[in-house]
Design goal:
The protein is mainly beta. The strands form 7 sheets. The protein has a 22-stranded antiparallel barrel. Strands 3-2-5-6 form a 4-stranded antiparallel beta sheet, with no helix packed on it. It is built from 4 helices and 44 strands.
Length: 802
């Protein structure tokens, strides 16, 4: 990175910024007699703003002298206490931001003469805008992407980009995705999966955690995305119903190569949803159910491969997809008493996918079709998850422990049927893959607020087993590698222990945490496999995190972060079976793949004012044993094999800035830009499949980034609008580059029926400009590709709350 760029980055770190939604704090304490030290019931407690002396809230102490003030924002307040026969007392109160709970301990009041000592009470709050380690976004505010999938909704959020159907944070796709704070098979136990089929209508909000604490699993060096389902706890019966429909692929962006079936156009979408909640006495029942049906042009990629011997092959990969996706979450909160709560819930999901694919191969001038590879994919994914969580709350608010059990079952039942047409014959091939994933999690977490912070500690144990069976059924002159089939068994055991301590006063805050994980992974391969053998690894590793914050003034804060994380290969990354949805660019896993360890250092600065805010983060990540997919050929065979490998060292250095400004009462502007340098150092690896070959690559690096502008409008009569523009700069990918691209989204939303109903209409990729273009360089070939997959979708929807 040049000296000029570095100066610009360091300049921005102190003079730019962001605004995020604030979480709330619960303030508690106990009122006692100063002389006798006995608890005083029914003392009146009033909280006022220090700035203008306006009352915020009030409460009376209970029979034990205890009180609790909920939903308090960070800031400076005045606490007023009054009690018959006692003199009034006033305390300055400062509410911090490192914990959701602030315990004042004992407050003494006396009967006769009031002695008002100055008391500064500091607390901590788990709040986005203060700690700078997390951002929270409510999907109801994302008007331009309402009614779509979670993946579509997330591409408008700061820090997030979408590339090849995967989420990236700050240019890195090693993201761990959670649902309600837990890993599930719906979104993957490794990194991420399934987000494009998870309806956004089921989701309340999304948390983006760039610097996770030791409490979280160590996986995912780019950070964590926590998807939080909707859940209401109002008394009685209440809920929400909705219906979204839409159309995509409104016209043909690029014409098919000759002799293949039509590509999907005017693809329908439909998403009905229902959320119900019933609360009475000690029970709270909840249900969230969604059905999402889509047709879409999942892929429409045109590739030109050029080999060193002069051979040129032109191909198109077109995939028409039908998807039926159903998710239902149901559960019960049982409030045993004031101290104990039991929550039992279940999540069930099915995903039915039907793909009709066409892949013609032509010579350089398209005068000769050398081959036509067509396939039908019939895939059914079934997920079931059961969770039991017990919480014990001590008398001090926030002082609690939770223990939980979580069991997940995920079945992947996949069938492919191929038609392989060449000039002299037509062959019919097929394969069947069956995978049953079973995951058991146990966790125990303990939290205790302190006067100047909190401590957290806990243990977690995970056992994961995935038996997989692949059967090939070859036809005439089959290109399938039938000797690469059979069975494989993935076993993973991970016990872990963690502890964190946080401290805060009015000017300083700090957090130190340590997670220690032991991982034992064994991948057994059937002895008849023609290439791979059984493999595995184990390690015990520490994963520390540090955070230090300094409050420059009431409106400005500086924070420094450090954490160490790991990316363990997921089962599909080491899966030994070749995948033939592309006949001549074949993806294969690698059982010898090892974890990638990453260290991150970040400097963040936040400044806010009455109508807006600015946030800057300067970050540097450096990794060992970088996991990447390597594309290579063997001898004179034009087939390309893409295999995961550990490529050595890599780094990601950049600056992220988010600016939020209220321009007028009806217009708010949010600007996000992220500039970073990605670098993969030179490396050499040995590929085993299909035969032993060596691949070497020189150092790759590029300065890249993205720029997003969200314009939010609020008009009269409950009408709101959002206009979003996103630009992605060119970036490096394994062995090549992805070119620049941009998109524009637009949405309108109107509240009706006295606020109970809501209607919206929106359009994603309004001008149909989002095309993925790549350049790949191999040892004896290169290829270019352009994917005109479906990006433009128009949706309308209606929802009603009751």
């Amino acid at each position: 990175m040049g000296i000029k760029l570095k100066k610009i980055l360091f300049f921005f770190i102190f003079f730019t910024l962001v605004s995020f939604a604030q979480n709330k704090v619960t303030v508690s304490g106990k009122i006692i007699d100063k002389t006798t030290l006995e608890a005083l019931p029914f003392v009146n407690i009033i909280l006022k703003s220090e700035k203008d002396n306006v009352m915020i809230t009030g409460v009376a102490s209970n029979e034990e002298g205890r009180f609790k003030l909920t939903d308090i924002l960070s800031g400076s307040y005045i606490l007023e206490l009054s009690y018959i026969g006692y003199k009034p007392k006033t305390l300055p109160l400062y509410v911090g931001n490192a914990s959701a709970y602030l315990d004042i301990k004992n407050i003494e009041i006396e009967e006769n003469i009031a002695t008002l000592n100055t008391v500064i009470v500091t607390g901590t709050q788990s709040e986005v805008s203060k700690k700078l380690d997390k951002k929270t976004y409510t999907l109801a505010d994302n008007v331009s992407q309402s009614g779509g999938s979670v993946l579509q909704a997330m591409q408008n959020l700061p820090s997030v980009t979408v590339q090849d159907g995967k989420i990236q944070l700050r240019g890195n796709d090693k993201v761990m995705v959670l649902i309600d704070g837990k890993q599930t098979a719906l979104t993957g136990f490794g990194n991420q999966s399934g987000l494009d089929n998870l309806p956004a209508s089921a989701i309340e909000k999304i948390e983006i955690i760039n610097n996770p604490s030791a409490k979280f699993d160590a996986n995912g060096n780019a950070g964590i995305i926590n998807i939080i389902y909707k859940k209401n706890k109002n008394k009685g019966l209440n809920g929400k119903v909705g219906l979204t429909t839409g159309l995509g692929s409104l016209w043909e962006r690029k014409q098919n190569l000759p002799t293949i079936r039509l590509q999907y156009t005017f693809t329908p979408k439909i998403n009905p949803s229902i959320a119900l909640n019933y609360k009475k006495n000690k029970t709270n029942l909840f249900l969230q159910s969604d059905y999402l049906y889509t047709q879409n042009l999942n892929k429409n990629e045109f590739v030109t491969r050029t080999y060193n011997d002069g051979t040129i092959i032109n191909q198109q990969t077109k995939r028409n997809r039908d998807t039926h996706f159903t998710t239902t979450k149901v559960g019960l909160d049982y409030y045993i008493n004031e101290a104990n709560t039991l929550t039992v819930s279940g999540l069930f999901g099915t995903e039915k996918i039907t793909d009709n694919g066409d892949e013609p191969f032509f010579n350089a001038d398209f005068s000769n079709r050398m081959r036509l590879w067509q396939f039908l994919e019939d895939e059914l994914k079934t997920t079931a998850m059961a969770t039991a969580l017990f919480t014990h709350q001590f008398k001090q608010p926030g002082h609690q422990y939770t223990t939980g059990l979580n069991y997940t079952f995920h079945r992947e039942d996949e069938k492919y049927f191929f038609t392989n047409t060449l000039s002299t014959y037509t062959g019919y091939d097929s394969f069947k893959l069956l995978s049953d994933e079973k995951v058991f999690d146990f966790n125990f977490d303990y939290t205790k607020p302190l006067q100047f912070g909190k401590i957290e500690t806990g243990i977690k144990y995970r056992k994961r087993n995935i038996p997989v069976n692949m059967q090939f059924f070859p036809g005439l002159n089959s290109p399938l590698d039938v000797n690469a089939g059979g069975w494989a068994n993935y076993n993973e055991n991970i016990p872990a222990i963690y502890g964190t301590y946080s401290f805060e006063n009015k000017n300083y805050e700090a957090e130190i945490g340590l997670r220690v994980e032991y991982v034992n992974l064994q991948y057994d391969v059937n002895p008849d496999h023609n290439t791979y053998k059984s493999s595995g690894y184990n390690y015990t590793q520490p994963f520390p995190n540090l955070r230090f914050g300094y409050k420059l003034n009431d409106n400005s804060k500086l924070s420094i972060f450090y954490n160490r994380r790991v990316d363990r290969p997921n089962e599909v990354d080491i899966r030994i079976f070749p995948k033939y949805d592309d006949a001549e660019i074949i993806k294969v896993g690698n059982p010898s793949l090892r974890p990638q360890f990453t260290n991150t250092i970040e400097l963040g600065h936040k400044y806010n004012w009455e109508s807006g805010s600015i946030y800057n983060a300067l970050y540097h990540k450096f990794a060992n044993q970088t996991i990447t997919r390597i594309a290579s050929t063997v001898n004179s065979d034009p087939t390309i094999y893409a295999i995961f490998q550990n490529a050595g060292k890599s780094s990601n250095t950049g600056l992220e800035t988010v600016i939020s400004q209220k321009i007028t009462n009806s217009y708010k502007l949010n600007i996000n830009f992220n500039v970073y340098q990605n670098q993969i150092n030179a490396f050499s690896v040995i590929n085993l499949y299909p035969t032993i070959n060596t691949f070497s690559a020189e150092t790759q690096k590029i300065v890249s980034g993205n720029f997003k502008v969200n314009n939010n409008f609020s008009f009269k009569n409950n009408l709101s609008a959002q206009f979003t523009a996103i630009y992605y700069a060119p970036d490096i990918i394994p062995q090549g580059k992805i070119k620049q691209r941009f998109t524009v989204d637009l949405g309108l939303k109107k509240g009706i029926q006295k606020g109970k109903g809501e209607f919206f209409i929106n359009a994603s990729d309004l001008f149909n400009t989002l095309v993925i273009k790549k350049e790949i360089q191999g040892s004896n070939f290169n290829y270019t590709s352009s994917d005109y997959y479906e990006t433009q979708v128009i949706k309308i929807g209606y929802s009603y709350k009751f």
